[in-house]
Amino acid sequence: LSDFELRYTYDMVSSDSAAGDDSDSNAIAFDLENGLATGRTNWVVGYDAQQIRYDDGGKSDTETADVRFGYQLTRSLNTFISGRHENYEFVGTRGNAQPDDSSAGVGFSWAPTQDLSLTTIYNKRLDPRPDEDETFVSGNVFWAPTARTDINIGYDNSFFGETYNAKVSHRTRWTRWGLSYDESASDFRSLLLQQGFLACTLPFSPASQCRVLLPGESPRAGEAIAGNNAGAIIGLRANISNDTFINKTGRATVSIVGARNTVTLAVTDTKRIFVADNDIEKDSSVDISWDYQVAPFTSSRVTLGHTQEQFDDGQEDDFLNYAWRVTRQIGGSSIFYVE
Question: Could you tell me if 207 and 291 are in contact, meaning their C-beta atoms sit under 8 angstroms apart?
Answer without folding.
Answer: yes
